[in-house]
Amino acid sequence: MNVGDAAERSGLPAKTIRYYEEIGLIAPARASNGYRDYSGDDIHRLAFLCRARNLGFSIDDCRQLMALYQDRSRASHDVREIAAAHVSAIEAKVRELQSMRSTLQKLIHACHGDDRPDCPILDDIAGAAEGNRAPTA
């Protein structure tokens, strides 16, 4: 089947499928005319990648998970280790987002939201930007 059919069946855009081929995640056969020819197994692998990416796994994680999925002699603890590391990264991101939300909520509360030009939100952003500047010589 062609890339359009593969996209429809796997739930991935054709552009993503081509990208996955470019980086070596999938390798569909080529028909005699040179066009990609996706098999049922290719669609299954693409759907697997779609689900893994929807769960937030990186391309590198997907590569490892795909290799483990295809290796019937795999040890499940290898898969578990990848998933546990991903959960730890998600938890760190959640903490970071909660901190951002808390800071923004405090700034919003401090802002009068009226016609005056002074704005604690902008003052805080400008102060943070100044704190991140490299010293000038």
UniProtKB/TrEMBL annotation:
Pfam families per the UniProt record, alphabetical: MerR (PF00376), MerR-DNA-bind (PF09278)
Annotated protein name in UniProt: Cu(I)-responsive transcriptional regulator
HTH merR-type domain location: 1-68
Keywords: Cytoplasm, DNA-binding, Transcription, Transcription regulation
Subcellular location: Cytoplasm
Chief place of localization: cytoplasm
Origin: domain of life: Bacteria
Gene: cueR
A molecular function (GO) term: copper ion binding
GO CC terms of this entry: cytoplasm
Gene3D superfamilies xrefs: 1.10.1660.10
InterPro entries the UniProt entry points to: CueR, DNA-bd_dom_put_sf, MerR-type_HTH_dom, MerR_fam, Tscrpt_reg_MerR_DNA-bd
Gene Ontology terms describing biological process: positive regulation of DNA-templated transcription
Organism for this UniProt entry: Mesorhizobium waimense
